């Protein structure tokens, strides 16, 4: 499932006065999560239809469970699924995640982004885009279905998806 690609970033952290990472309290995480841009409510159905996913397939969270520090929404069709992760985590944190590989700076819909693959993707089905935002970052994670009859390279497909959905992202 596409949602699993960013799950290792779910644990919240803050910094102490010396700049060392310290766990955030659940209240801090809850407040920060509540303030995040919500892809489920902010991306119009008309944009999802242009991308080629069915708005009726919308799922919030991971298996319907909200994750602290993230607002997650996913949609799918017969060929692929997309997960959009809104978070206060930075692009640097995503770049430093060991599973994110083949990092490449790209431009999507006039915004800078980082394209990446997953080391754990053994079947060449997944590609992601990480877009910086004032809140932290927004990630698109696309997973081609192995049963797809319309095979398109995942990074080509995520670039096409990004061209439509990135304009809805927060600055």
Automatic annotation (TrEMBL):
This is DUF3558 domain-containing protein. Pfam families: DUF3558 (PF12079). InterPro entries: DUF3558 (IPR024520).
């Amino acid at each position: 499932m596409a949602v699993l690609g960013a799950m290792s970033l779910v644990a919240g952290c803050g910094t102490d006065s010396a700049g060392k990472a310290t766990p955030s309290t659940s209240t801090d995480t809850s407040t920060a999560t509540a303030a995040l841009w919500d892809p489920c409510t902010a991306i119009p159905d008309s944009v999802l239809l242009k991308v080629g996913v069915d708005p009726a397939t919308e799922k919030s969270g991971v298996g319907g469970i909200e994750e602290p520090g993230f607002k997650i929404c996913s949609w799918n069709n017969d060929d692929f699924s997309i997960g959009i992760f809104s978070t206060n985590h930075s692009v640097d944190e995503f770049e430093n995640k060991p599973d994110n590989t083949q990092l490449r700076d790209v431009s999507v819909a006039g915004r800078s982004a980082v394209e990446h693959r997953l080391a754990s993707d053994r079947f060449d089905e997944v590609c992601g885009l990480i877009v910086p935002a004032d809140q932290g970052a927004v990630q698109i994670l696309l997973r081609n279905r192995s049963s797809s009859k319309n095979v398109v390279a995942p990074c080509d497909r995520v670039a096409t998806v990004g061209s439509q959905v990135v304009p809805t992202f927060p600055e």
